[in-house]
Design a protein that fits this description.
alpha+beta, Cytidine Deaminase, domain 2, 2 domains, seven-stranded mixed β-sheet, two-stranded antiparallel sheet, 8 helices, globular, zinc, metalloprotease, protease, metallopeptidase activity, signalosome
Length: 239
C-alpha cells in the first residue's frame, strides 16, 4: 500500500487517534525470515488452553475485585464493535467479545454482534440471541478458534460510556456465572463527532463489597435524563 495514499493516511490517523500499537516493539528479522516483532505480535493471539484452564482453576480475581487492571482490544475487534454500534443509529445494539486473560489484563481478540431487540435506552437479549451465541461459539471452536467469551459490549448513542442500572445488573449476573467477564460501552455518536472511539471498559464489584470513597476517575458529560441512573449505580462499578 502506498504510504501516502488517502486510505493509508486515513488508517494511520485512526491508529494514532485510538492509540493502536503493534505488539512486539522494534522490527528485527531473524534467521527464520520472520521478524521478532511479528512473532511477538502473533503470540498475543495464541490461545494456550492449558494456561487458560489453570487461570480458571486458580480464579485470582475472587479475592481481589481490582485484579484486572488493563484491557487490550485488537484493531479488528474494535472496528467490528464501532461499525456495529454505528449501524444502530440512535438504537442500542449489543454483541459479545472473545479472547483470553494474560495476568492482570483481559485481551479481546474478536467480537461478534447479537441479534437483539434494542431501544433508545436499553438493549435486551431474547432466546434467539442466546441460541445464536451458542451456535456461533460452537462453530468457532470447530474451526479451531478456541477463545472463550470474555465479555459483552453495547452502545450508548450520544450519552457517554458508563453502566446504567440494567447494565450493572446484567454485568453482575455475568460475573457470577461466566468469570472473567468484561463490559464494554461505546458511544458511536461521540465517536463520529470526535474522530476518536469513545469507549469504556467496566467490571462490577462483588455483592456487599464497599469500595473506597474515591472521585469518579474521568470527567464526562451525561444528559440530565440519565444523570440520576448514573449517580445511583456508579459506586457498584470499577473502570
Amino acid at each position: 500500500m502506498d504510504p501516502f495514499s488517502s486510505s493509508a493516511i486515513a488508517r494511520q490517523t485512526w491508529e494514532l487517534e485510538n492509540s493502536i500499537i503493534a505488539e512486539g516493539g522494534v522490527d528485527e528479522t531473524g534467521a527464520s525470515g520472520q521478524s521478532s516483532a511479528a512473532a511477538a505480535s502473533d503470540s498475543i493471539f495464541f490461545y494456550d488452553e492449558v494456561a487458560q484452564a489453570k487461570v480458571q482453576q486458580d480464579k485470582p480475581w475472587v479475592n481481589d475485585p481490582h485484579y484486572f487492571k488493563r484491557v487490550k482490544i485488537s484493531a479488528l475487534a474494535l472496528l467490528k464493535m464501532v461499525v456495529h454500534s454505528r449501524s444502530g443509529g440512535t438504537i442500542e445494539v449489543m454483541g459479545l467479545m472473545q479472547g483470553k486473560t494474560d495476568g492482570d489484563a483481559i485481551i479481546v481478540m474478536d467480537a461478534f454482534a447479537l441479534p437483539v431487540e434494542g431501544t433508545e435506552t436499553r438493549v435486551n437479549a431474547q432466546a434467539d440471541a442466546y441460541e445464536y451465541m451458542v451456535e456461533y461459539s460452537q462453530t468457532n471452536k470447530q474451526a479451531g478458534r478456541l477463545e472463550n467469551v470474555v465479555g459483552w459490549y453495547h452502545s450508548h448513542p450520544g450519552y457517554g460510556c458508563w453502566l446504567s442500572g440494567i447494565d450493572v445488573s446484567t454485568q453482575m449476573l455475568n460475573q457470577q456465572y461466566q468469570e472473567p467477564f468484561l463490559a464494554v460501552v461505546i458511544d458511536p455518536t461521540r465517536t463520529v463527532s470526535a474522530g476518536k472511539v469513545e469507549i469504556g471498559a467496566f467490571r462490577t464489584y462483588p455483592d456487599g463489597y464497599k469500595p473506597a470513597d474515591e472521585p469518579i476517575s474521568e470527567y464526562q458529560t451525561i444528559p440530565l435524563n440519565k444523570i440520576e441512573d448514573f449517580g445511583v449505580h456508579c459506586k457498584q462499578v470499577t473502570s
